[in-house]
Amino acid sequence: QVQLVESGGGLVQAGGSLRLSCAASGRTFNRYTMGWFRQAPGKEREFVARIQWSSGSTYYSDSAKGRFTVSRDNAKNTVYLQMNSLVPEDTAVYYCAARLYNTYNYWGQGTQVTVSS
Question: What Rg, from alpha-carbon coordinates, does the chain have?
């Protein structure tokens, strides 16, 4: 059974940093792509970043580019999202997800990030 567990969210002032973690279990993920998404109140869920587990290849949304970094630790089966220069517009619930092909089939429960101005 696949399980994705996010952690690391919290309250931070604008300009600050947070590192989110996503602990993955239940199968071997080296063929998977791991994604980070977020959903702000009253808005649709949006893509933030992704990383291909085997190659480490990454891709970012325009809002994340230059401020966020996605990485993975193979030994710990964990994916990270380092978020710097946070702004209030980054306030959202952040989700980790996994896909083998085109669809993200597995999702974590989310972790709240709140950026105060």
Answer: 13
